[in-house]
Design a protein that fits this description.
Layout lengths: L5 E4 L5 H11 L3 E6 L23 H5 L4 E5 L5 H13 L2 E4 L5 H4 L4 H7 L4 E6 L11 H7 L2 H4 L14 H24 L4 E5 H7 L2 H10 L16 E6 L5 E5 L3 H10 L14 H6 L1 H12 L4 H10 L4 E3 L3 H4 L3 H4 L2 E6 L2 E6 L6
Parallel strand pairs: 1-2, 1-4, 2-3, 4-5, 5-6
Antiparallel strand pairs: 7-8, 8-9, 10-11
Helix pairs in contact: 1-8, 8-9
């Protein structure tokens, strides 16, 4: 049972600590190890409005939850002994050390497994275990193609507003650790598993990668538009000045959208008769739809579409998002170092 596990979280920044938080939320005992003088750098990643004297930031809080905090300098002999004492009874160790740091700190996989053969070591690195290159999410977004696709022709390349590659890497490591735990339940032996940010980024290109690999299509920056579907991602302004968008993934969706907007003539229009043709003529289609949508109130329009199971939604800001009970229910609160911290749960399965 996960609530009987002990996890040592010796990682920093976002990807590794979020894996520790995942297990903590499920009931495991998670001990976060920080250097006495050089604690997790995200403690200092503060908004201008945050207390400069506090040792806790909102960023740090987002991926550290329900952990016990211990300060150890693994270069110090006494602290190293304390760390190894923790390793002896731990189930999982999470790290994101640079290449060679394990040797410098005398915590190589072989040594750790000699002390605790059941230990599962989960590691995150930047560009593979043999690379010593420093990796940050922004650089991975740049070099894996995400930024080249994200944005508009006018904006130039744009990064995602969250550390997307870190988040994806963390999910891959969670999966690897869970599989290792399952294998250990049969073999009784631990193992080492690792995920690189680069591999996680490339594997997450999914349909865009196949568009290139199979059709030689190099994506351009098209804002929120989808290269294979239309209308999908176009932004429409309603009578009450709200922005709405649609994900019209089938001819049935398109037929219902046209009925609601009193545009039945578009259903038989040769330019829009199929999804592929709608992609070709998406600009003309967008203009025709906008005329009608501009006459509609957003709430009324969305209610009609959602009742017909047509994917449609309003573009919301975060204050609007957290007005809803459904979002409020996902908030987790904890006092860390005397500060009330809040974050979104990392376990949303039911």
């Amino acid at each position: 049972m996960i609530d009987q596990l002990t996890i040592i979280d010796a990682s920093t920044v976002l990807a590794g600590p979020s894996v520790g938080t995942f297990f903590a939320e499920l009931g495991a005992k998670v001990i976060k190890i920080e250097h006495p003088k050089h604690q997790d750098v995200t403690r200092t990643w503060k908004l201008p409005s945050e207390d400069p004297k506090s040792n806790v930031s909102a960023y740090f809080s987002s991926i550290n939850y329900k952990k016990d905090y211990t300060q150890l300098n693994l270069h110090d002999e006494n602290d190293h002994v304390k760390f190894m004492d923790l390793i002896k009874t731990a189930d999982i160790l999470i790290t994101n050390f640079k290449k060679g740091d394990d040797s410098k700190l005398n915590i190589q996989d072989e040594y750790l497994h000699s002390v605790n053969p059941r230990l599962i070591i989960g590691k995150i690195n930047g560009y593979g275990e043999e690379s010593d290159r420093v990796a940050y999410d922004l650089i991975l977004q740049a070099e894996s193609g995400f930024m080249s696709m994200n944005g508009t022709p006018e904006s130039g390349p744009v990064k995602m507003p969250v550390a997307l590659i870190d988040v994806l890497s963390a999910h891959h490591l969670k999966e690897a650790i869970l599989i290792a735990l399952y294998e250990r339940s049969h073999s009784g032996k631990g193992k080492s598993v690792s995920v690189s940010l680069y591999d996680a980024a490339i594997s997450s290109l999914v349909n865009q990668a196949s568009n290139y690999l199979m059709a030689d299509h190099v994506p351009k920056r098209i804002g929120s538009l989808h290269p294979n579907i239309a209308p999908y991602g176009e932004l429409f302004k309603t009578k009450d000045m709200a922005l709405v968008t649609f994900a019209i993934g089938s001819n049935t969706h398109f037929l219902k959208l046209c009925h609601v907007l009193d545009l039945d003539e578009l259903i038989s229009d040769e330019r829009f008769i199929s999804n592929q043709k709608r992609v070709i003529h998406r600009v003309e289609l967008e203009e025709l739809l906008q005329v009608k949508i501009a006459l509609s109130q957003s709430a009324e329009l969305l209610q009609k579409l959602q009742k017909l199971n047509v994917p449609a939604g309003k573009i919301k800001t975060l204050d609007e998002v957290f007005e809803l009970n459904a979002a409020q229910e996902l908030i987790r609160t904890e006092i860390i170092d005397g500060v009330e911290t809040k974050r979104i749960t990392s376990t949303v399965f039911k």
